Fold these 4 entries.
Entry 1:
Amino acid sequence: MAGLSIQELLAEKEAGLDLELLAGERGLDKRIQVPRIQKPGLAIAGYTTNLHPDRIQVLGSTELSYLEQLDPQVADRHLRGLCELDVSCFIITKGQIPPRLLIDCAEQYAIPLLRSQHQSSRFISLITQFLEERLLPSTTVHGVLVDILGVGVLLLGKSGIGKSECALDLVLKGHKLVADDVVKIRMKLPAVLFGEGNDLLHYHMEIRGLGIINIRHLFGVAATRERKKIDLAIELVEWRDEAEFDRLGLEEMRYEILGLAIPLLKIPVRPGRNITTIVEVAARNQLLKEMGYHSAREFQDRLEKRMAETAWLHAHSIIGDNLE
């Protein structure tokens, strides 16, 4: 089953959530499916129509103080009505002490009750960012991801075409390796793709005839980075004389990952072509395109303008001869 269990959320340390379990241990296997949270103030007041039980329910000082001020029988009825919806979990912020009634309901209905020392606004920001990274769609791609002048370039192509060798040459030129062979790609809101390396293969690269090398150990920490936004995909393909490749750069191809399309270039490979330099220039050209400067289109506009001027001069010359 996809998603994130409450047990995994409780064990998370790197996100700085600072969570502890207060009650409801039997429900730690419940799973979170969506990266959004909810504050159940209206549900505590008895209105549960718009409650989303699959979301984490965050209880701040306002919700807890209101719960304590309610008549005990009313509070018990409202809280049990909330718990009967089988919510994923409750999280109390600001290190507050929960009412006994809340602890008893969490135990009875096996709903994990957690607590964080963070202020509500800070915790909501942290948990939302963490859940977005863990729960948004992800996939893996066979390729190499490099950071070239701030442009995330995903090198694609069949096995043995020279992706790793090209990436190694780029590292020698001062660029950064993100991932080799297996690239883990996650989508981040609103519509951005980020790539990172496999946990086992991180910072390592396979070079045929040389074996596995550690880029960070060989070239230092500045030669690698943890993750990078993917801006451009480049597919290395074998050169074929009968094949037609884009000569002007006007053809705009796209490569789709997780429903998002990024620019794609196909570069033919054959002996004598400096693929590393071509890839580096492609990254520089992508930077210009993002700044609104498209070299191929500018050339096409100049060419069409020159052709129009030549046609006008030719027509004027013919008309002038006839008039004489």
Entry 2:
Amino acid sequence: MSAELVHEELKTFVSDLKAAREAKGLSLKNVHEKTRISVTILDALEKGEFHLLPPDVYTRNFIRNYAEFLEVDSKPILDSFKDEKEYAAPPVLQKETMETLPSSERHHWKHLVLGVSVFFFIGVLVWLLVSYADKSILLKSSGSGERERTASSGEAPVGANSGIKDVATLPSSTKPLPETTNTFPPQAAEPDHPQASSSHEAAGPYTLIIEAKEKTWLRIRTDDEEATERTMKPGERLDLSARERFTLDIGNAAGVRVLFQDRLLENLGEEGQVVHLSLP
């Protein structure tokens, strides 16, 4: 079967999903509310616009979940999708290595790389030495100035007779902090609705950390902002904050570590499983 026939067959299969949805009287928004698959992905699936979809492993999960929701057999669609990707796979390009270059050019590049590395190392070393010297001079000058002020005033150095060493002293220009008084009325100490008060204090901001262990597709929505989609690679990390809530679609539940308010969320799901989270 040619690539054109495979592509047309796949478009026919995914159009059957649209027909099944319309037969049930459902809109794309209705399906999103039930499956948590974004409307953008559902629309691209039904139109066969696979270049707009995330990586293959996540797209297969979306096809399977959507077909099961509509009570349609997903196997023919997944098989056709697999054939489509095999036909569309780009040819393997021959790798060009340094060995294809003439010997004289290889030596030239090696010497250039070595020279740049040496200059970089020397620059870092000089910067560290200068920073250390400046810090030492600053500490010495501040210490000698303090001793001169103590000697001129005729006072014994702090800690000289008390047996306490290395006591930090405030400069003479430092002013004491002003005293504060409680300006709240007495009745504010005991609120009429303690439960409402505690829940207000417990509200945001919230922090969320996502660390990728495997290649994983994510769809993230913070508060009422527009959702964003991305694919994380192993070792990548996201640090997020929100005033009210996070909404997450994770394409590979076993591929990420999720920490909400510095607390690890365990057992999100299996490898390749799509999960949906709403925090808190």
Entry 3:
Amino acid sequence: MHTVAVLIYDSVNPFELGVATDVFGFEHPELGVPWYRFLICADAKRPIRSSVGLLLTTPYSLEHVREADTIIIPGPRPGLAPVSEALLEALCQSYQRGARIVSFCTGTFLLAAAGLVDGRCVTTHWAWATTLATHYPRVQVDPQRLYIDDGQILTSAGTAAAIDLSLHVVRQDYGAEIATAIARRMVVPPHREGGQAQYIETPLPSVSDEGELFSATLNWIMAHLDEDISVEHMADRAVMSPRTFARRFQATLGTTPYQWVLQQRILLAQRLLETTNESVERVAIRCGFRSAATFRLHFHRFLSTSPQAYRCSFQREPDRS
């Protein structure tokens, strides 16, 4: 069983602790897969005071971190309270033994303090990105991304991006169908496109007739991913010029129409590979790719694996009851 340990320490963000608990801490027998073993590990024997003053206690300590396959670091408010050397040492030891380390929001500061992200590309909340880059000049800080998977170390942006990264981890471990089921239970999208730019910019005005048409166009695209969909066709359905539609798309979703449609096609392909026995060629057609070769190229670019290898890893056993 895969063990997940989440670290708590003075000034820890309780919302991000809650995200880790909600995603990894509750069993899901209805999904038909063995869920994670979940430990909340404190860096001191006394009660831990969160960033809002909530006192937290747990029977697990830093000694139990060595049992974990994945370690999660909810973010602190930087500078609110010093982080113990024992916690930083536990992170270094865990990294050296090959554990996967995941940080939420400003948890990246702890990784930087431990020297684990020198030369790596990481992200954090956009409001703290400059501070992180200034204090740790060896770290490559990208304030635009919702999360970054750099192999053994994964970092996320603001607090809600902790959900995005958590679902990404579940998707890695169990596949897209299980991650989508968890997202549905949490009433959140299984995957958000774009980056933090869409949240830094001035908020969009309240929904207008144009906004309703734009939303309806996105729903139409999702139902017609097998078709040849051009930007001109999408813009026409939204009653916009192609240039206006592309600009609206970038401002709303933080990416281009082409990249968004491509991502939705890959997500659909993941579900089909997990839940059907259709050939790769048939999956390619159902997802709107012109050929199996094109499908394999894009699939590998997004997921660093082939469709067949993905199916072997994540296709669920049929129900024989």
Entry 4:
Amino acid sequence: MTYLNFPKQFMWGGATAANQLEGAYREDGKGLSIADALPQGKARFDLVNEPDFDWTIDESNYRYPNHRGIDHYHHFKEDIKLFSEMGFKCYRFSIAWSRIFPEGDEKTPNMAGLAFYDAVIAECLKYGIEPIITISHYEMPLHLVTKYGGWKNKQLIGFYKRFAETVLTRYFKQVKYWMTFNEINSALAFPVMSQGLVKSNGAADKRNIFQAWHNQFVAGAEAVKIGHQLDQNLQIGCMLLYATTYSYDANPVNQLATLQQNQAFNFFCGDVQVRGEYPAYTDALLDQYGIKLTDLDFSAAELALLKQHPVDYIGFSYYMSAVVETIQKDHAEVGGNLLSGIKNPFLEASEWGWQIDPIGLRIALNQLYDRYRKPLFIVENGLGAVDQPDSNGEIHDDYRIDYLKQHIEQIGAAIHDGVDVMGYTPWGCIDLVSASTGQMSKRYGFIYVDLDDAGQGTLKRSKKKSFDWYRQVIASNGADLDS
């Protein structure tokens, strides 16, 4: 059966990140971020994990698409107006840390950077769009990596606290919903974007990743504390990358491995930030990597802070599910959201190998709500695809409509199951630079941006077929999904 009785207050919208669409990477005093130093291409992550990678921007050999993005910095009014035409109730975006504190360790903020976000927030509110802000979304100041070594250094707690306090204090009257760190758990497999760690500064040592997580947990709790001191009604959430995970078969060995994979990837970071304490399986998890909790630098005061200031809700991204198999070694593999894995024979995959599993989203919502009993917000979901304009310049992206329709149906089913779902903001509501490949050709948006992988194009915005379809979905509060 199809259940499409969404709550009246359900927040429909879209999501982006500053480093993937703003551009203007050195304009108005902005400093370099780690995203600015990531070259384009499917091998970008292999490159940054070379032992001698030192974050040098080498424009003679590589393209850096984040430098221009889609020039949202100069087009934000046009873009937000298009969002309002779709009927957005909310818009999730991030504040570029290096636009506010260019090096990350300054005592005073860059006022030009704050003025930009003053204008963005005002433009959202002008159209009745609720801003939802991610404080740190894969764009920490590069200086905090090259000088301090990234998040494994406890000094970053203070730098982040200053940044969070600056933006929370400035915007708390206009912005009710916040998230501390984007996809914080992704660091288990790939810590460069969320922790600033690569092989050359310690990524190969899992102790550094767990230390960086602890420092981020403390920093996030500081943000929650600051926000609630400003207004106890502020909603400050964490944000996870969630991949519903299945055992390949009923073999108890694979079932146990699936349990352990869920603990390590899907639940550990959420357990600490939502429950306010390290879970019972922490020692067993660390032991898998030859680490003990006592190897980490933490204090009783920090543990008390975590307990006293847990998050208010859980935001998460969902693009695909995963399969665990530890016995056979000859399975076909597929790509994924920063992760690859075993092919599920029951699922189809996108052009980039991401396995499409709408029912997995219903399972994810039930698993998270059963575990935490806090409101859930699906802040990323979508289909990356090559969109080709026809002879009339129109894009008939029925494949995207079908993907989103199936996932929205499963959200409705989860709400019927009793899950408290706050809202849904599909990823890349306007075409932007892909985080995983640095490509423009991997498009997610309802709005097409005329720009190719070589950086050529007019930047003209145009509506895809999915634009009008999503407008209809929002206008009907999810009741009309027909295309």
